[in-house]
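hiii, so i know i said id send this last week but things got crazy w the move. better late than never?? heres the sequnce for the chain we talked about at the cafe, plus the structure i predicted for it. fair warning i was half asleep when i ran it
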Amino acid sequence: MCRKDICLLVLVGVFFLGKNSLQPQINIHTNSGPQFPTRQLTASLAESSPGKATFATTAVLFGFKEVASDILFLQIIQQYGDWKLKPEEKFKSIYPLIQVVSFMSPHFVPLYSFGALVLKELGYVDEAIDLLNKGIAENPRAFELWLYRDFIIRLFKTKEYKKAIEGIQAALQMEGHPPILQRILAYAYEKDGQIEEAILQWQKVYYSTKDDGVKQICIRHIQRLTDED
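okay and structure toks below
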């Protein structure tokens, strides 16, 4: 662990301890949720980044998981932008950091969305999908993760149309889902060759919306699909 990391931990520790002494009711060591597996954290980073492994483990032991997560997330951004590294070098450096941050802060949604983007751009699509699956499991109402997995990756990158349809249908069962998912489902049906289902879905969108612009979009797609059929 470098001197900068040590100093940061000391400063953060002093801040929280000082705050805790002034406000005894504040407890920085929360007991809610499962205990973080520090051995797994250390093992994940030990080979690729031993310094970061020591830093992250020390931060977790002192109760500063969020601080460590933020710092490691910034490291992910920095290393992804390092133009001197080849894609496989970036992956070997970044992927362990992504895994560790997802363990430390499972509800840190930007980690999943940005991490998946990085992994996809580096050519590791399966790892990107695995990360999004974990993010969705931990944060089912983070609809941007559903969109990135089932719309951006499965519909356009891997062309796994049936999996995309299943994912979108599952997201539509969630309360508060964005209305655009209904239109994406219609598009997914079309890509999978299910033209009748696509038309029915566009009709469903048409009758469920009050937006005249969306209604016009539905009419154009229904007419186009009917003519092609």
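btw The chain has two domains: 1-104, 150-229. thought thatd interest u
miss u guys!!
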